[in-house]
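Running this now, will post back.
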Amino acid sequence: MKGVEVNVQRVSRSYGDFKALDDVSVTIKKGEFFSLLGPSGCGKTTLLRIIAGFDFPDSGSVEFDSKNILPLPPDKRQSNTVFQTYALFPHLTVYENIAFPLRLRHVDKETIDKKVLEYVRLVQLEDHIYKKPSMLSGGQKQRVAIARALINEPSVLLLDEPLSALDAKLRQNLLIELDQIHDKVGITFIYVTHDQSEALSVSDRIAVMNKGKVLQIGTPYEIYEAPSTRFVAQFIGETNSFPCTILSCEPYEEEYLMRVQVPALNGEVSVTDYKAQPVGTQMDFTVRPEKVRISSNPPRSTVKELNTFKGIVEEPVYSGFQSKFYVKLDNESSTLVKVFKQHTAFLEDGPDIEWKDTVYVSWTASDGYLVKDTAR
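Update: finished.
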């Protein structure tokens, strides 16, 4: 495996009264595609700049393979950075832009020709090698920037929201190409983004950040299916989230089955978790919209832990491959529950559930989960 292990330990950084990073610790494995994910101002770019050497922490350490890199200038670290704005030289061709780092090191022309051609092929720009940036699309410019960053063969490639200036379809295509490039070069990628779908698509692991802190580190599956806090659950995808209180907790197969009081649903809900929670604990109950079933008749199920609520379709949203329903519950709370229904069969007459229909929404105890509400 190429690349280096990046170890960030207890890094803090303030700008006046604003704390951009608050005691952040992250270990990124050698050769990993690792994403720093969070909203604007959460500290992810500040952390990337500190790793790159463009900024310095007030406290803490950053190591590459156990070697302290903080005293080193950016050009002496084993890293290169790809920026959102491309940062290409407008008067130079694709070839000359990519060759620039090698010319700075006074590499001989034969080697430069060979290496530039290798990386031009890697980013699939063979037909554009003698064009200037003004003749390229946004996606092509970003591929030039990636090739230029890789030609020095760094151990770590730092990517600061490199796709955010592109349109949605081009962004998705280049994201796939970026993942393929990572597979080919095999070095450590650290990718900064505010787009959760990007991070889920390509990352080996993700660190979710907010207000200068790392809230959770895990694989895309772990982050999505088992978020640790209310913020992570709501930031990653869409979810139904409600404050709740634990009423009972008992062993259930290899987990614990809990009964929780959910005021927003004006009732009780069954939920399973691998960790027992004391009776009276205040948490948040969350269930993803795609885990909620919707039907015109009461669901027929022998599962005693099935949670079922009656309601009225307040707003149906047809999206082609699925319909999104906002269901107002038929109780004192009148809470809206989001439901995603995948269209797996041909709909000759359109969706069978429409506006103002009376429906039943249901989910099993294992479909929901409990998270901490860090606001409490």
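The chain is about 20% helix and 35% strand. More later if anyone needs it.
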